Each structure stands twice: as C-alpha cells, then as structure tokens.
Amino acid sequence: MGSFQQLKQLTRGNALFLIIILGIGGTFQNGYHITGLSSPSPYIQRFINSSWYDRYEEPPPPQTVTMIWSLIVSMYAVGGLFGAVSVKLISGRFGRKKAMISNSIISIAAAGVMLASKQAKSYEMIIVARILYGFSAGLGSSTHVMYLGEIAPIKIRGAVTLTSATFSSLGKLFGQFFGLSEILGHEDLWNVVLCVPVFFSLVQVLVLPFLPEAPRYLFIEKGDEKACKKALQSLWGQGDYEQEMDEMLAEQAAIDAVPPKTPLQLLRDRTVRWQLLTMSIIYWSNQLSGMSTISTFSFDIFLKAGLPRDQIRYVTLCLGVFEIITSISCGLLMIEHIGRRPLFWGGYGVMGAILVFVTVTLNLKDSSEWVPYITASLIALFIIFFCGGPGGTTGTLLSELFIQSDRMAAFVLIGSQRWFFFAMQGLVFPFLIDALDSYCFMLFACMCLLASLYTFFLLPETNGKTLLEISEEFQSITVCGKSFSDEIKAATRL
Q: Which range scores top for mean pLDDT: 282-291, 295-304, 329-338, 418-427?
C-alpha cells in the first residue's frame, strides 16, 4: 500500500485523531522527560544547595549534592520499571483506553508535586515527582504501543505502530526546545520546564473517553463482536473488515486452547522462546547501540568532541528535528515497502560503521577546527539510521510477535528489561566514558555488528503476515539442524 493510500485510510475515520491523542499521552511523555532534565540540571543542583542551607544553616557536602542529584536522575528509571511491570495488571483489568487515561492522571499528579517542590523548598518532592513521571512513562509507553497494535488493520499495522517512535522523537525535541534560554530555560522556571507535558496529559484525559477502545481487546478479551465492529468502523470508516475479523477469530481459537499467561509462564513456554529471545536481543542492542547514551549525554559528548559550548543546545535541537523527519519518513515510505527485517540488519550495520568513524574523529578533534563538526554530522547520520531502522521498527515488531494471550506478559517482560538497562546505563556510562574515553563508541559499534548478524540470519520477515503466521515462522527457525517445533514434536511423542 502506497503512502497516499495509507494517509487516505487514516483519514476515513477517527484513527488519525486517536493516534495523535494516544501519542501525546504515551511515548511523547517519555521522550520529553529523557531530554527535558538536561537544561535545568545546574539550576536544580543549586536548588538542592539552597534548600539544604535553609534547613541546616550550612552548605551541603559536595558528595551529598551529587547523591541527591543522582537519585533525581535515576529514580525516573526505577519508576519506569514499576510502570512496565504493572502493564498487565492495569491494562488487562481496565482495558487499554482506561489504562491510558489513568496513566495521564498519574502524570498530572506528578506535575503538581514538581510544581510545588520549589515553593516547598523540598528536593524530596522532586524525587517523588520523578518516580511518578517514570511510572507514568513505563506504563504509558507499553500501553501506547499495545493500543496501536490492536487498532491497526494488517496492511498498515507497521505504519500505525511506528507512530509511537515518532511521538517519542517529538517529545525529545520539545524537551530540548523548551529548555532553551530563549524559551523556559531560566533559573526561576526550572520546575515549569519539567511540567510542560502535563498540558498534553490533560488533553488526553479530556478527549480519550470519547474515542473507541481497541477492537482486538473488545473482541478477544471481552467477547463483544458488535462493539469490535463498531470500533473498527469508527476508526477506519465503513466496511466489513472481514480480513481483520477472520484474523481475530483464528487468534481467539488459538487462545481458547491456551489461556492467557503470566510473565513467568511465558518465560517457560518453549513455543515463544525465539520471540522473547529476539525482542530481548533487539531491546538490549538498542540500549547498547549508543542511541540512548547520545540522547541522555548529548551535551557531554559534543563538549568532548570539541564543539563550542554555546552551540551545543542548538546542535542537539537540530538532531531532534532529524529524528522526527526520519521517523515520519520511515512510517510513510519504508516500513511497509522494504519490510521489517532489512531495516533492522541494515540499520545496525550502518550504525556500527558510523560509530567507528565517530571514534576516529573524536581522537582527531584537535587536528583541525572542522573535525568537531564532522563528528556532529556523523552523529546526525547515526540518528537517521537508528530512527529509520531499528529504533522506529522495534515497537512495530513487538506488537507483531505475540498473540493476545501472550501480549501483556511479553510487554511486562520486555518493558522491565528496557527500563532496567536504561537505569544501569545512566549509572554506568559516566564511569565508562572516563575509563574508555572516546573508545567507548567501539563497544557500541561491536554491539551493533552483533545485532546486525543476528537479525540478518535469524529474524523472519513479519510484514503483511498474521500473528499466527509469524508465530509459525519463529517455530520453524533452525539452528544447528534443530528447531523448537521439532523439539516440541519430540516431547509430545514422549
């Protein structure tokens, strides 16, 4: 299906509007909070100093300020981990729509705590707000991707689920934009900068109740065929949607034979072992590819590369624009035409090569005044290939690999892993860059190479296939002449 036909189908019903509303309350929030803390960081550290002095009438020890600041940064990932773990409980019990609304209410509460922290002179309230923001991001990001996968017709499922990556990139850009000194990047407004996403959460709370629930959830988990058809027609316009209904009927028949699983049961299930292994490796590779590090520590990296300090914020803003343009282009032009698999192995391969060149230019930064700008250009190219490849396609793949009975448990496991690695990276990378200096990017390059080899040889193409067909593809993967399907047959005979 061409990009024009995709856009035409999106505008036939409420689908495009729902995608936007889900996006601003979903991955947008996580993207904003990843970059939004960078600009006010010196002001918050001064606030910690002044708050401590007001209480104890003496300046705090430097290590105490560092510890409190580390807690403010890292508690976001801890909250995200708990949010990811709660996806099955909240989304399964209340449905996708109510889970997203509840998630936005948590985000609004977090903003209230953050706003009040300055007046109360309490850095503890900042930590609490960051935990709540993290919980909201962990729950919202997973539920957002799940919701998108359950509203999308097969032909444009990739393009629809890819919007989660687009809104994450948009959130990062907004975080960088509002942090500029010309906008809200002033010392007296540091708490306001960290509360900007609350306006988008409020819009979602007010609007989402009037939009449809996920059709797949209504049909498979609630058994309401009439409500499912009504939701499909509301989203995508009038039609019989026979292909979508047939797929859901086949999936429901498979689920009737096997009830929904807990995360522990899913880990023990041999039939989904390749899917879990694949998604774990891909998320692990994404975290260790260097992209998260570049997003979180972009200021430090460009400073080390030799860029003038006063230009760095504008360079990172330009990178955010590149990220959004690439994500949108991937959704409209590539993911349904090229397929998922080439975007993974090709993206990882090119990213690895770029990181090798970044290592070289970082070591040559003093040889010429234009070398730092080559480094910035290479990092921009790296971001383009990440967002147009693995970064943009990962959410789509996750929504395609698991049938309804396995999906929520899979989101819990993969989401927990993602947030755990995010927290560990935040703690380890500052020490890693001190120990390895510019050669830390060679570590990321090796990870990209391994991910490229894995996805080239073992990842099946999922484009245009039903969830059951994809499951069969994974079961037929052969390594050393053996496949899981052969092992299952042998176990059955015994």
A: 282-291
DSSP 334: I
pLDDT number for residue 382: 92
**What are 307-316's pLDDT values in tens digits?**
887 787 788 8
Residue ranges of alpha helices (H) inside 364-466 are 371-387, 390-400, 404-436, 440-458
Please classify residue 69 by burial: count the beta carbons closer than 10 Å to its beta carbon, then call 0-12 exposed, 13-18 middle and 19+ buried.
middle
Single out the residue of 220, 216, 243, 249 nearest to residue 231, CA to CA. Answer: 216
In angstroms, rounded to a whole number, what is the distance separating the alpha carbons of residues 475 and 113? 48
Mean pLDDT of 264-286: 89
What are 314's two structure tokens? 């504008």
Quick one: pLDDT at residue 426?
64
This prediction's pTM:
0.79
Angle (nearest 5°) at CA 137 between 136 and 140 = 75
- Residue (of 403, 352, 411, 407) closest to 382 by Cα position: 352
Query: CA–CA separation, 320 vs 318, rounded Å?
Result: 5
Q: CA–CA separation, 114 vs 127, rounded Å?
A: 9
CA distance linking residue 61 with residue 378, whole number of Å: 40
| Helix, strand, coil percentages for the chain (3-state, nearest 5) | 80, 0, 20
Whole-number Cα distances in Å, 395 to 83, 141, 145, 182, 319? 17, 10, 6, 34, 21
Give the strand pairing for 478-479 and 482-483.
antiparallel
Q: Alpha helices, DSSP H only, in 152-224?
A: 157-178, 190-193, 198-207, 215-216
List b or e across 205-230, with b for residues whose CB sees 16 or more CB atoms inside 10 angstroms.
Answer: bebbeebbbbbbbbbbbeebeebbbe
Helix (H, G, I), strand (E, B), or coil: what is residue 483? strand
Per DSSP, the three-state class of 308 is coil
Mean of pLDDT over the chain: 84
**Among the listed residues 78, 161, 194, the one whose alpha carbon sits nearest the alpha carbon of residue 395:** 161
> What is the H or E stretch that residue 479 is in?
strand 478-479
Residue found under tokens 């049961």: 265
Read off the tokens for 88.
């099955």
323/380 Cα distance (integer angstroms) = 9
- Reduced to 3 states (helix: H, G, I; strand: E, B; else coil), residue 170 is helix
